[in-house]
């Protein structure tokens, strides 16, 4: 395992703030064993991309901007994801997202009831989302502990009022717009972006630590990897952002790179992604560089199964796929 940072995350002052437990969430706290009565563990994992356009297109009451629709095929894929997610009857959704960027270590949101407005900085005219959800604090803390035990720099984020990033909110909204399940949200350590030759090895360790924490707490968990695929996008948009007359891949090469990865996913087994994901990143500047997909695979233990691609489509030229894996 290649580690770049060895320091403890945060200052001494913030460490003492982090150590102080905040009040439990106002809503009923998640139970310590599977609430659904079924077996615990990771019951499904999804590639759940977060383009703000998809939330904008859905016109939920929480989002301020209004649209006339758009990107339907991807949104139909999410409809199917929601049906399947319900059938898995999870106790908790665990999400790893690339736009909660932490420079030192892997942070886990331990705020019991995050509330606020999440804004997409590039597309603030599309995404200004009012969120209010519950955290499964026991599981969040268990992930911090297991990550540290595995040698990672980890930190429990306990600062009430820190704005939750749009990649976390976007994936969670699209997967569960009712927000009736507790959440655990993990940050993306910035090393892979900062150091061009940094590997995704730490994400494997974080994934294994996530699985151990889920098993220890007896949760029945669904995991969400909030990543787009090919990631070049236009620097201009049409007057009507949802004008599907101009929506297309950035280049054929970007599209072909996505198709190659999706072919590997659909054929399985997932262990092939250990080589395919870095090759896809190299070919398409894929957002999986942030590690969410690798974290998901490692958490599930790289099962010898194929992924089920529920939808693929471009969003302002980036490639996006909604994919389900159900470990057996
Ligand atoms: O990566 C993102 O979230 C972006 N802001 C790019 C826009 C669309 C992504 O697919
Ligand atoms: Fe993104």
From TrEMBL:
GO molecular function annotations of the record: ferrous iron binding; oxidoreductase activity, acting on single donors with incorporation of molecular oxygen, incorporation of two atoms of oxygen
Domain of life the protein comes from: Bacteria
Keyword Oxidoreductase in record: yes
Biased composition (Low complexity): 22-34
Organism classification: Bacteria, Bacillati, Actinomycetota, Actinomycetes, Pseudonocardiales
Keyword annotations of the record: Dioxygenase, Oxidoreductase
Chain residue ranges for the region called Disordered: 1-43
Protein name as annotated: 2-aminophenol/2-amino-5-chlorophenol 1,6-dioxygenase beta subunit
Annotated organism of origin: Actinomycetospora succinea
Ranges for domain Extradiol ring-cleavage dioxygenase class III enzyme subunit B: 46-319
Endoplasmic reticulum recorded as keyword: no
């Amino acid at each position: 395992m290649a580690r770049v940072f060895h320091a403890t995350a945060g200052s001494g002052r913030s460490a003492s703030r982090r150590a102080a437990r905040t009040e439990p969430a106002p809503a009923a706290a998640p139970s310590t064993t599977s609430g659904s009565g079924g077996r615990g563990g990771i019951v499904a994992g999804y590639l759940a991309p977060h383009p703000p356009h998809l939330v904008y297109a859905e016109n939920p009451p929480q989002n301020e901007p209004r649209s006339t629709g758009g990107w339907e095929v991807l949104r139909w894929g999410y409809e199917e994801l929601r049906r399947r997610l319900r059938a898995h009857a999870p106790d908790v959704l665990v999400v790893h997202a690339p736009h909660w960027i932490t420079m030192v270590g892997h942070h886990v949101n331990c705020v019991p009831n995050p509330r606020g407005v999440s804004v997409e900085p590039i597309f603030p005219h599309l995404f200004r989302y009012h969120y209010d959800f519950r955290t499964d604090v026991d599981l969040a803390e268990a992930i911090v502990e297991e990550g540290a035990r595995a040698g990672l720099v980890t930190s429990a984020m306990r600062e009430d009022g820190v704005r939750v990033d749009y990649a976390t909110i976007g994936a969670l909204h699209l997967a569960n717009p009712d927000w009736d399940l507790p959440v655990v949200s993990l940050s993306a350590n910035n090393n892979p972006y900062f150091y061009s030759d940094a590997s995704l090895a730490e994400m494997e360790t974080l994934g294994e630590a996530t699985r151990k924490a889920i098993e220890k707490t007896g949760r029945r968990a669904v995991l969400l990897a909030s990543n787009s695929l090919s990631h070049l996008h236009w620097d201009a948009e049409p007057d009507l952002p949802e004008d599907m007359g101009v929506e297309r891949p950035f280049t054929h090469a970007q599209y072909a790179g996505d198709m190659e990865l999706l072919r590997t996913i659909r054929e399985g087994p997932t262990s092939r992604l250990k080589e395919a994901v870095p090759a896809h990143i190299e070919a398409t500047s894929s957002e999986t560089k942030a590690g969410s997909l690798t974290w998901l695979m490692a958490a599930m233990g790289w099962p010898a199964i194929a992924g089920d691609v529920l939808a693929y489509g471009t969003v302002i030229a980036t490639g996006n796929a909604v994919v389900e894996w159900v470990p057996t």
